[in-house]
Design a protein that fits this description.
Factor Xa Inhibitor; mainly alpha; ribonucleoprotein; 141 residues; RIBOSOMAL PROTEIN L35; 2 domains; 6 helices; three-stranded antiparallel beta sheet
């Protein structure tokens, strides 16, 4: 049968129940039977719990859905490539740094001072952040 808190307080011991238990639903049974004031509070709580709906956020609902597209795309993945002209402009040194030559040596060189032209002839190194990206693009192997 049912646990004792579902039954009216005056009918805990007696086996005769006012409504046929098999033919009626639990909610109908609890609402129609005679209850004491303490039992009415319990029934009110049970009825409230029966009526409560579980509110699911849209984020949780999206997580529970099956993904529409496959997790791994079937389209061929392409490798990012740098311009082929870069291979002549940069050189990897033995310690891993990338060497570059200065720009601006030729254009309007007659307007530049001898000191700046001499400085432009000397190679310099690529900064570490740029060198990391260039290695990923395999600019200079």
């Amino acid at each position: 049968m049912f646990p004792s808190f579902f039954l009216p307080s005056n009918q805990h011991d007696s086996g005769n129940f006012p409504v046929d238990v098999k033919s009626e639903s639990l909610f109908f049974l609890l609402c129609n039977c005679y209850l004491s004031p303490t039992s009415k509070r319990i029934v009110a709580l049970v009825c409230l719990q029966l009526e409560q709906a579980r509110h699911v956020s849209s984020r949780e609902r999206k997580k529970s859905r099956k993904p529409m597209t496959p997790l791994t795309s079937k389209v061929k993945k392409f490798k990012m490539k740098a311009y082929s002209s870069y291979k002549d402009r940069f050189r990897t040194m033995n310690d891993g740094t990338i060497r570059r030559w200065r720009e601006g040596k030729n254009h309007n060189a007659h307007m530049k001072s001898k000191k700046s032209r001499r400085r432009l002839r000397q190679p310099s190194t690529v900064p570490a952040a740029y060198a990391k990206v260039m290695k990923k693009l395999s600019v200079c192997v």
